Amino acid sequence: MNPVIEVHGLGKAFTLHQQHGVVLNVLQGLNFSVQPGECLILHGRSGAGKSTLLRTLYGNYLPAAGSIRIQHEGQMIEMVGAEPRQTLAVRRSTLGYVSQFLRVIPRVKCLDVVMEPALSRSLDPAQAERRAQDLLQRLGIPDSLWSLAPGTFSGGEQQRVNIARSFMVHWPVLLLDEPTASLDDANRSVVIELIAEARAAGSALIAISHDAATRDAIADRYLDMSPKELDHAC
Ligand SMILES: Nc1ncnc2c1ncn2[C@@H]1O[C@H](COP(=O)(O)OP(=O)(O)OP(=O)(O)O)[C@@H](O)[C@H]1O
């Protein structure tokens, strides 16, 4: 099977202009690839660059060196230096990102927030609504909240609404940044189930999780990001 994401020689440095121009070389010479249905866990101590790598893969940071190729609509696309329009197209249908935090949009009700990724792909609204309701139910969001805007929800409720939204549609490549952080056991199990369903549907996953039980449940391979072994997956 061909990989859906291939990373070669990836490097990222931060220059701290307001702190005497100190340069932090956070990522250096990273190489890895991930196949459909596979889950790669980013592993390394705090500060090793795990979040920086996810943000670089998503296109939030421009790398200093290297290549990130993603299979989008049947073609491998180079993401480093891609036009913003291209990056947005890849993000719309190929590359998903699950963070712990919901970007709250004022006055948009919870059910619409969750359905939006499906509607933006022009999927059937009735099916999208059923899927959104099912996800919210599984993640323990009471139906009394579905027609309210999530701005006033608790932190944990917002996190679960965000997870429901993230798993609303199929993503060929899905980046997960601590998806189960601060969830209780029941909700953590639901997220692990959703991750397993995404893998069974062929998503390639790249994840950070500080929770050993979650890592054990979802990992196929680990990318060791400790400084001495920056350049290979094990
Ligand atoms: N926007 C930024 N500007 C400057 N330095 C940054 C920036 N983002 C991250 N860094 C630095 O890069 C290094 C890696 O940070 P990163 O958040 O990627 O680590 P991490 O492995 O995800 O850590 P943790 O497990 O603690 O979340 C840290 O030393 C951090 O200070």
UniProtKB/TrEMBL annotation:
Any Pfam family: ABC_tran
Domain of life: Bacteria
Keywords per UniProt: ATP-binding, Cell membrane, Lyase, Membrane, Nucleotide-binding
Record carries keyword Nucleotide-binding: yes
Domain ABC transporter: 5-233
InterPro entries in the record: AAA+_ATPase, ABC_transporter-like_ATP-bd, ABC_transporter-like_CS, CP_lyase_PhnL, P-loop_NTPase
GO molecular function, one term: ATP binding
Family affiliation: Belongs to the ABC transporter superfamily.
Protein name: Phosphonate C-P lyase system protein PhnL
Species for this entry: Pollutimonas harenae
Gene name tied to this protein: phnL
